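ok, trying the design again with the full structure, not the truncated one.
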């Protein structure tokens, strides 16, 4: 990876996160390019190669990371396709939510294009992301390894065998940080309602969430076992957990994720028809 030329089309938050992670893995700044309407957007933070023109930025690149908004990806890719060589195409990595690989290949005008679709999530901004990857059959083993190395610079990576699973990933981990932020929000408010100062409720909520996640990551047990281990018979935790379960928490989350998954399917249809 360290010798590969990596071009980012779009210099938003996710691109910024990936660039920072790559530089920390000692990828040379000379091998990282960014094309953005504001070519100096990242120059102050990263000593990388900045471009205002997408075509110039991808010239000779080994990897092209499509990091623009899904709504404009069709236009961007079709423009890139006008100057791509017939052979030796770069690896395309798309982090645009809801865009299927078949549509990217169609916009490129090349069904043999090597495309990896990625669903990252926002904790990648603090190098703690979770990214699911799917590769079309034209992606070589070396290219898969390269794609994984790029995403692993900002967190966990998992490969999917079927692209249709990406909609479920979008619902679970792609949108997932918002669910945890919502839980933190309601726990803070509940703590305040119990009489705690707002800052105390906030800090206790955040540290509890961090500690629980750290325990789960470092444990060999699943979440259900860990929950049972901290739930004493007849104790306070048991009362709270029973109240949540009796309130239909599992069913509520099932409906929420199903709604998110369906929206991901709809978005793929809407955006893919451009």
């Amino acid at each position: 990876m360290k010798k590969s030329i990596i071009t980012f089309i779009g210099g938003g938050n996710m691109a910024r996160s990936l660039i920072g992670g790559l530089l920390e893995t000692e990828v040379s700044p000379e091998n990282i390019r960014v094309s953005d309407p504001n070519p100096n957007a990242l120059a102050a933070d990263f000593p990388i190669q900045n471009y205002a023109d997408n075509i110039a930025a991808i010239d000779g690149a080994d990897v092209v990371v499509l990091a623009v908004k899904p709504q404009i990806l069709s236009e961007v890719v079709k423009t890139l396709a006008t100057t791509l060589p017939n052979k030796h195409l770069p690896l395309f990595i798309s982090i645009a939510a809801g865009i299927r690989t078949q549509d990217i290949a169609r916009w490129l005008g090349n069904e043999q294009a090597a495309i990896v679709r990625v669903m990252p999530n926002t904790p990648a901004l603090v190098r703690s992301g979770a990214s699911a990857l799917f590769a079309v059959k034209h992606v070589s083993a070396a290219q898969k390894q390269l794609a994984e190395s790029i995403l692993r610079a900002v967190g966990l990576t998992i490969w999917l065998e079927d692209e249709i699973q990406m909609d479920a990933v979008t619902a679970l981990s792609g949108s997932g940080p918002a669910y945890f932020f919502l839980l933190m929000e309601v726990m803070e408010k509940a703590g305040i309602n119990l009489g705690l100062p707002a800052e105390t409720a906030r800090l206790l909520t955040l540290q509890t969430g961090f500690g629980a996640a750290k325990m789960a990551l470092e444990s060999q047990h699943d979440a259900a076992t860990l929950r049972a281990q901290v739930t004493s018979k007849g104790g306070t935790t048991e009362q709270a957990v029973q109240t949540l379960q009796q309130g239909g928490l599992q069913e509520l989350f099932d409906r929420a994720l199903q709604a998110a998954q369906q929206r991901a399917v709809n978005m793929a249809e809407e955006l893919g028809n451009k």
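Keeping the full-length input from now on. The longest strand covers residues 129-135.
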